[in-house]
Amino acid sequence: MTAPHAVVRPASPSDLKAVADIYTHYVRHSVATFEETPPTVASWEGRLDDLAERKLPFVVAESNGAVAGFAHASPWRPKPAYRHTVEDTVYLAPDATGQGLGTALLEAVIAESARAGTRQMIAVIADTGSDASLALHRRFGFTDAGHLVAVGYKHGRWIDTFLMQLTLATGCGRHRS
């Protein structure tokens, strides 16, 4: 269930300070991201511009007038043959979990990615000790695609990642060049 008064909408430059603040929490206090230095608002502006140019979604969840989470789809890998595959990213403000915002954000990113003609979506999920992100992705039909052991080192420990994959409806059975 989505939080009361929550809306998912395209991110705008005025949202990026809140996006940076949310992500900074995870950079500093968790292994959910392998970033070790929080990106600046300027780097988020560059990401927003890049994704817009690629026609890929970058959305925020606004609850009670404040950005409570964000999500986007970005290129999976830089090599040209991967151009029809994206990786999703979903982060919520620490006090905004358990309200359905992650579900609403991921739903929007999947739908917008499909509309953009993307064929596959990959989730790279760090083993944080919580199954919440795995469960979220499974609810949308993502299937297990791999388990990478000790591929990240952060906060004094080695971290595994789980790979999950979703074939998007508009990409099924179609060849795009």
H/E order of the elements?
Answer: EHHEEEHEHEE
Distance between the termini: 38 Å
- Which regions are unreliable across 5 or more consecutive residues at pLDDT < 50? 171-177
Give the C-alpha Rg.
16 Å
From the spread of the alpha carbons, the general shape counts as globular
Quaternary assembly: single chain
Total DSSP E strands? 7
The pLDDT mean sits at 93
In DSSP terms (H or I, runs of 4 or more residues), the helix count works out at 4
Spell out the blueprint of helices and strands.
Blueprint: E1 6-10, H1 16-29, H2 41-53, E2 58-63, E3 66-75, E4 85-92, H3 101-115, E5 120-126, H4 132-139, E6 143-154, E7 157-167
Parallel strand pairs: 4-5
Antiparallel strand pairs: 1-2, 2-3, 3-4, 5-7, 6-7
Descriptive report:
- 28% of the residues lie in helices and 33% in strands.
- The protein contains four helices and seven strands, in the order E-H-H-E-E-E-H-E-H-E-E.
- Strands 1-2-3-4-5-7-6 form a seven-stranded mixed β-sheet, sandwiched between helices.
- The longest helix is centred in the middle third of the chain and has 15 residues, at 101-115.
- The chain is globular and about 40 Å long.
Give a quick set of tags describing it:
disordered C terminus, 7-stranded mixed beta sheet, alpha+beta, 4 helices, 177 residues, 28% helix
Outline of the structure:
The chain has 177 residues and is of the alpha+beta class.
